[in-house]
Specification:
alpha/beta, Aspartate Aminotransferase, domain 1, Aspartate Aminotransferase, domain 2, 8-stranded mixed β-sheet, 14 helices, globular, binds 4'-deoxy-4'-aminopyridoxal-5'-phosphate, pyridoxal phosphate binding, PyrdxlP-dep_Trfase_small, 2-aminoadipate transaminase, transferase, pyridoxal phosphate
């Protein structure tokens, strides 16, 4: 078949190949990017669904507005106000997961050859999605405080990118949290250079001890002109359930208008039924309690993973313990002649029935082959202890 030229820019991810091995019996997986299904508030979602279908089911089973279901846009507006961001219901659109918001941004903003700056490393699906639109992607280095802002500023001044894509809070895969000072500077740079910054924030609610600094969106009120160069993507996937496929995008009106037009040609609108379930759920006063359980569980798992890595692999693996989210980002140090290639290590780990994702695919270019991502979200404490022990065996 003669496929479109744009498909030449992308390939299926190496991670998918690895995932085929995860079905091996007895495997302990730190590889996935999924939340723990045991933590889904199925009772609350069932009550919300029943209420939605009992009271006037017609509109939610009917076609709906591309911009989103009205009561949900209002609910998201209130939810964002609780996080320090003022957004009118018509200042946001509902999307089919935040993944669709990223796709719509790609569709609306990227012409073949346009330069885009992302963190190195960043969310793989964003790299692939933006490449499909022909983006030339440039990676900006990060450390434990998130993206290196001096370097980012240099790259923006040098390349004049169409947009900068960032996951400031508990990044995937980095787990890093961008400091408050860097957040403010990024907004200032965006205004000075008139560069669109896309803030992807699916993990901000999953903090362990203390809430992270305000999002770029929340801070935009303090930096004049920054709201006009900022898009923010949110999602219910990590706070309620990814199967609902409900996310949102907040952006300047002209971008929202174009995104709505493109969404209309694509899926017409996000499922009204799942939107209504989310809207109903938000009115039920359950989210805070459900989130408290998620935060406590992930905090405990992250703490155990840090302790086990320190105990069993301190000389072989360097890492920064995350303060929220779902991931450890780590680096093989190769000391004492131990393995320093994460892809080789991943194969040896599978032989020991433990899985993780090598870090290389998360780089748009010049991958650091020593890096790896470990998710602590779905393994319980006993599995984490056992799995890290198996990683030690795999190192040899
Ligand atoms: N952005 C990031 C950084 C993610 O990690 C994910 C999902 N893992 C998404 C966006 C997409 O999430 P969803 O479409 O389920 O909202």
């Amino acid at each position: 078949m003669k496929f479109a030229d744009r498909l030449q820019n992308v390939e299926t991810s190496a991670i998918r190949e690895l995932f085929k091995l995860l079905g091996k019996p007895g495997i302990i997986s730190f590889a996935g990017g999924f939340p723990d299904p045991a933590l889904f508030d199925a009772t609350g979602i069932a009550q919300a669904s029943a209420a939605v279908l009992a009271n006037n089911p017609g509109p939610v089973l009917q076609y709906g507005a591309t911009e989103g279901y009205g009561p949900l846009r209002e609910g998201i507006s209130r939810f964002m106000a609780g996080k320090g961001s003022t957004v009118a219901p018509d200042g946001l659109i509902v999307t089919t997961g935040s993944q669709q918001a990223l796709d719509l941004i790609g569709k609306c903003m990227i012409s073949p050859g346009d330069k885009i700056i992302v963190e190195a490393p960043t969310f793989l699906a964003t790299i692939q999605c933006f490449r499909l639109y022909g983006a030339h992607i440039i990676g900006a280095p990060i450390d434990a405080d998130g993206v290196d802002v001096d370097r980012l500023e240099q790259l923006i001044d040098e390349h004049h990118p169409k947009l900068v894509y960032l996951i400031p809070t508990f990044g995937n895969p980095s787990g890093a949290m961008l400091s408050l000072a860097r957040r403010k500077r990024i907004l200032e740079i965006a205004v000075r250079t008139q560069t669109l910054v896309v803030e992807d924030d699916p993990y901000g609610e999953l903090y362990f001890d203390a809430a992270p600094p305000p999002s770029l969106l929340a801070l935009s009120d303090t930096v004049p002109g920054s709201r006009e160069v900022l898009a923010h993507c949110g999602s219910f996937s990590k706070i309620l359930s990814p199967g609902l496929r409900v996310g949102w995008m907040i952006a300047p009106p002209e971008l929202l208008t174009k995104a709505v037009m493109c969404k209309q040609f694509s899926d017409a609108h996000t499922s009204n039924l799942t939107q209504a379930i989310c809207a109903q759920y938000l009115t039920m006063d359950r989210l805070n309690d459900a989130l408290a359980v998620v935060r406590k569980t992930y905090a405990e798992r992250a703490c155990v993973m840090a302790q086990c890595l320190q105990r069993d692999l301190a000389d072989a693996i360097a890492f920064n313990a995350p303060q929220g989210g779902m991931f450890f980002w780590a680096r093989l140090t190769g000391v004492n002649g131990q393995c320093a290639n994460a892809a080789d290590f991943a194969k040896r780990a599978i032989d020991q029935l433990v899985a993780f994702v090598p870090g290389a695919p998360f780089y748009a270019h010049d991958p650091d082959l020593t890096t790896l991502r470990l998710s602590f979200a779905t393994a319980d404490v006993a599995k984490i202890e056992e799995g890290i022990g198996r990683l030690k065996l795999a190192l040899g």
